[in-house]
Design a protein that fits this description.
It comes from Streptomyces dysideae. By secondary structure, the protein is α+β, with helices and mostly antiparallel strands. It contains seven helices and 14 strands. The longest helix is centred in the last third of the chain and has 18 residues.
Length: 286
């Protein structure tokens, strides 16, 4: 490999080549994709790299790209191929005048890569660190590193979610995460639960999912969240969950939810029995 500390700077990022890894540092300018700004940097061990490519880009540029082994990075696993080129954290765009230099670094990197390009047994690139949170259209999602919490918004949540109430999911009870980009139709974040074989087809009816929308659940917020949960599931999933005591709710929040529950009841969306049971549950949280 080239000398430790060699740096190749491109648009929005710079790659620093080290003896055992490539450290990617992202710029924080207003033109830098928000996902890059949130990530800050990514350290990619050589063991996680399957290959490197160099190809012509748009408008007088070339693109140097690291290809990772399947299963080496929770961010790419969560994205499941849905990231647009401009948001791919492993593409370095350079002016065409620097193609010779880029080819030199690509050759140097190829020369020291291992021969194992198969799936990685564990994540080799670190996941975004918890705690993380973001606002979806129908609720607020938060993750403390061990448990995912969904708190529903009365302005967006379906009656099915209001009936189910706010949700908490220890990672030990999850088998994975399904992320659908907010840049496509019906974007959402769905938690795949070990005890639920067939979740509702529509994410807005699933208490284990939050729905994205215009301005809600943007890629730079929801994707790092999904990646962090996915990494925790893979690392801690087999560990039995430790029950946590339920936090006390804000009385004003409880009153607002009871009011909304009453509206659903009057509209015929909640039965008398469901109304009584749910109201009692909410009052018990005070």
């Amino acid at each position: 490999m080239s000398r430790m500390g060699d740096v190749l700077a491109g648009f929005h990022a710079a790659w620093e080549f080290e003896s055992d890894s490539v450290l990617i540092r992202y710029e924080r300018g207003i033109r830098t994709p928000k996902l890059f700004q949130v990530l800050g940097e990514r350290r990619v061990p050589l063991a996680a790299i399957a290959g490197v490519t160099l190809a012509p880009g748009k408008r007088g540029t070339v693109v140097l790209r690291i290809e990772l082994r399947p299963g080496a990075d929770p961010l790419l696993d969560a994205a499941a191929g849905q990231l647009k080129d401009g948001s791919d954290p492993y593409r370095l765009v350079l002016s065409a005048e620097r193609e010779t230099l880029a080819e030199y670094y690509a050759d140097e990197l190829r020369a020291i890569l291992g021969t194992d390009a198969g799936p990685a047994e564990r994540y080799l690139v670190a996941a975004p660190e918890a705690p993380l949170q973001f606002k979806a259209y129908d609720g607020k999602a938060s993750f403390d590193g061990r448990t995912v919490h969904f708190r529903w918004f009365w302005t967006g949540a379906s009656s099915a979610k209001w009936k189910a109430g706010d949700q908490s999911f220890p990672v030990a009870g999850l088998s994975g995460v399904e992320w659908r980009s907010p840049e496509v139709f019906e974007g959402h974040l769905r938690l795949l639960r070990r005890d639920v074989a067939e979740p509702p087809a529509q994410a807005d009816q699933d208490p284990g999912a939050v729905v994205f929308g215009l301005g809600y659940g943007p890629v730079h917020e929801s994707l790092p969240f999904a990646a962090a949960v996915l990494a925790a599931v893979r690392e801690y999933g087999p560990v039995p969950a430790v029950p946590a005591s339920a936090p006390r709710r804000d009385p004003a929040d409880i009153a607002e939810r009871i009011r909304h529950l009453g509206e659903l009841h009057q509209a015929g969306l909640v039965t008398d029995e469901e109304f009584s049971v749910k109201k009692a549950e909410l009052l018990a949280e005070l």
